[in-house]
Amino acid sequence: MDLIFGLVTGVFFGVLLQRSEVIRYDRQLGALLLKDMTIVKFMLTTVLVGMVGVHLLVDLGLAKLSIKPLILGGTVLGGLIFGAGWGLLGYCPGTSGGALGEGRLDALAGIAGMLVGAAVFAEAYPLLKTTVLTWGDYGKVTLPQLMEQHRWVLIPWFCVLGYAFLRWMHKRGL
Amino acid sequence: MSASTRGKPWNPYIAGALAGLLLVLSVWVAGKYFGASTTFVRAAGMVEQTVAAERVAAMPYFMKEAPKVDWQWMFVVGIVLGSCAASLASGTFRLQAVPDRFAARFGPGVGKRFGVAFLGGVVAMFGARLADGCPSGHGLSGTLQLAASGYVALICFFVGGVVVARLLYGNAADKTGGR
Question: pTM to 2 decimals?
Answer without folding.
Answer: 0.95
